[in-house]
Amino acid sequence: MPTESESRSITLYARLASDDRIASILDQLRGSGIEDPQISLFSNQPLQAPLATGSRWLVPVAVLAGLAGIVIGVALAGGTALLYPIQTGGKPIVAYPIVGLISYETMMLCAILATVAALVISIRRAAIWNAGIPELEADNEVAVVVRLSGDDPRRHHVRRLLQETQAIEVRTLETA
Amino acid sequence: MEGQSPRPEPARIDEDLLAPILSTGTGYRLLVGMLAALVLAGAGAWVYQIRTGIGQTNLNPPIFWGIYIATFVFWVGVSHSGTFISGALRLSNAEWRRPITRIAELMTLFSIVMAAISIFVHLGRVWLFYYMIPFPNQRALWPNFRSPLMWDATAILTYAIGSTLFLYLPLIPDFALARRRIGGWRRPLYAMLSLGWRGSHAQWQKLEMAMRIVCVLIVMVMVSVHSIVGLDFAVALVPGWHSTIFAPFFVVGAIHSGMGVVVVGLYFVRKVYRLEAYIGLEHFDKMGKLILVTTLLWGYMYFVEKLVHWYGQEPAEMAVMHAQLYGTYAWLHWSMIALAFVVPITTVVFPSFRRWPVGLMVIGLLINAGMYLERILIIVPSLGRPRLPYAWGVYVPSFIEGTIILGTFAFFLLLYLLAIKFVPLISIWEEKEGLTHAH
């Protein structure tokens, strides 16, 4: 059974005046054994920081949703024609170019909807995950957040490292 | 950038670009009141048409499509403004797009709403619109997907949803900023719409990726939507419509029209809100160059389309062409050629003219007047000259039709004016990002 202090995680928060030193801070954190998933950066503008956060999964989401959209389109245009209650010449008329045309639109619609839905979910999840992180007010400011377990021996070292970056403030935010 | 005031600092950008939301002058209120009155007049006319029947229009055999459908095609065309400007320029990483995209994207959204309204107005029994949705029912009335009108319904729905989301995505960080900076009744709305945006690196990267994906998709939808609107006509065996070039011709015409509207919007936003530091002469110059390209393309396609009909000398086709070139509709036709082609080509070709915002704004208006005439000229002469001459007819819109259409134009402007009080007209974070790139 972990002790109470071990089950808690600590969040080290450093607010910097600009993003000039972000790359070197990331290097130093990595040098201290901190892995990328433990580091978060916050800014009011997009950063050109060498920190991969994994956004490529949105592409397969869009592709899969597009494929689902094709199925829906075929069902809509082809299925409606097949099941049409008033048949012409005793058989349904399925016009393949039309099925393609409608499927194209439903493919696009589903891909767009799924991409945006996935983004919205991920933004909401990040908002919940980062609820305790103070919001940045100034445009140029950047916040570096490092998450460690409560008994991580590196926490004092990381805190000292962040303090040495001439941060405006360095705080320890305790999160359960 | 030449012709532009020095780039403002980030703090000043917030102040400048949030100012239109916060300050409301008497002129604004008067304009909103006037437009609301016109919208009410249009709505009243529509209610009257619904109560008394579609006979209030001058749509009679052989002309069943009139000004409502022409207006629908026109608004779908205008809607290409945002998608093309924003989508294509984002995809090509054009830096100068930054102050223009939001202005154009809002136009897309509202014009697609107007396009939908124009269709609903055209439906005699508008309350039965759900007949287009395929589901097993006791009426045994199923939609026929072989009808181009069903293609329209599907494409317009896709485009409307896609355009709304395409507008929304880059708004998320701006809503988060507005949540921090603007109080009052708007704050809870901004908080909700910003989805709890915190500006983490992961959120930025995902937003960027989502925008890239949606950008590619929406540009593809844009091309398909106006192609389908073109196919509404081209797949019919009506003289003047049955043309293989109609789909790309409609797409080019739509972009031509959209460019014109964006220039008009840019001019007024810049002038009224004193945003010269953001929307420079360089932007007008670039837009002028694009207008030059679309004017040439449109003129070329128009010529080719007419040439093929003329070369074929098919009597029914020639009857329509004669009506357009020398007959009943000649004044409309030559006005269209002058407004959409001759005047733009003889002005925007000069660099000094392209850097004259008033001049370019007027050209934008003229192009759209010309393109509106083009929509009427595609529909009315063809339907008015069916293959059997005994059935020939003419069409002039009724007072009710005119009032409703005036109402849709007023509604477009009204929605735009109301949006100014809620949405930053220039993407604030993208403007700041551009500042970073410039350094």
Q: Quick one: biggest sheet of chain A?
A: 4 strands, antiparallel
Give Rg of chain A in angstroms.
25 Å
The strands making up the biggest β-sheet of chain A line up spatially as 2-3-1-4
What is the alpha-carbon Rg of chain B in Å? 23 Å
User: Structural class, judged by helices and strands of chain A?
Assistant: alpha+beta
Task: Quickly describe the structure.
By secondary structure, chain A is of the alpha+beta class. Chain A has helices at residues 4-7, 22-31, 58-83, 96-129, 155-163; strands at 9-16, 39-43, 142-149, 169-175.
What does this structure look like?
The complex is a heterodimer of chains A (176) and B (439). Chain A is an alpha+beta fold and 176 residues long. In chain A, 47% of the residues lie in helices and 16% in strands. Chain A is built from five helices and four strands; from the N terminus they run αβαβααβαβ. Chain A has helices spanning 4-7, 22-31, 58-83, 96-129, 155-163, and strands at 9-16, 39-43, 142-149, 169-175. In chain A, strands 2-3-1-4 form a four-stranded antiparallel β-sheet. In chain A, helix 3 (58-83) packs antiparallel against helix 4. Chain A is rod-shaped, with a radius of gyration of 25 Å. By secondary structure, chain B is mostly helical. In chain B, 71% of the residues lie in helices and 0% in strands. Chain B contains 17 helices and no strands. Chain B has helices spanning 10-22, 26-52, 67-78, 80-91, 101-122, 148-168, 171-181, 186-193, 201-234, 246-272, 281-312, 315-325, 330-347, 351-354, 357-384, 399-420, 428-438. In chain B, helix 1 packs antiparallel against helix 17 (428-438) and helix 4 runs antiparallel to helix 5 (101-122). The radius of gyration of chain B is 23 Å and the shape is globular. The chains are: A alpha+beta (176), B mainly alpha (439). The interface between A and B is large, with 57 and 55 residues.
